[in-house]
Amino acid sequence: MRIGILLVLAALALPLAHAQQALPAGPDGFAFAGEWDCKGQFINGKPHHSHDSAEPVLGGAWLHYDSERKQLQVKKDSKEYTVDIAPGTSHWVGYTTFHQGIVKNDELLVERDIVLSGSGFPKTEGKERQYILLNAAP
Q: Is residue 58 pLDDT above 80, yes or no?
């Protein structure tokens, strides 16, 4: 019985030890970390403005990347406006499906209040929803 428990603990520790390996080093000591603003336009001409950040986490084994849109293109009465986005508090709901101890899929839904405002555009409150589905791959 003790040997079986020890083997199970050792088997569980192997994936954890493997997951803690650091990201490969970039050329000349480059590290993908920091904060920056991204402003420009897509190939279709639509403008883009976001605030981005990245930092190594879990001992450098993973990279946490975040991108927050600052502006959005909206249409009202057949006219396009560039509006600023003021985000509110987010509410997350998630469901994970396990099969024989392995994650088969992970579903996340985030909903948050936002306020849109811009030149010639009335201040508008709304909700933003993002659905994220992570599926196991062969």
A: no
In order, the DSSP letters of 40-108 are: EE-TTS-EEEEEEEEEEETTTTEEEEEEEE-EEEEEETTEEEEEEEEEEEEEEEEEEEEETTEEEEEEE
Span 83-122, pLDDT tens digits: 888 888 888 888 888 888 877 888 888 898 989 998 888 8
Sign, CA dihedral 10-11-14-15, equals negative
Q: What is d(CA 97, CA 95) in angstroms, rounded to the nearest whole number?
A: 7
- Helix H or strand E encompassing 130: strand 121-135
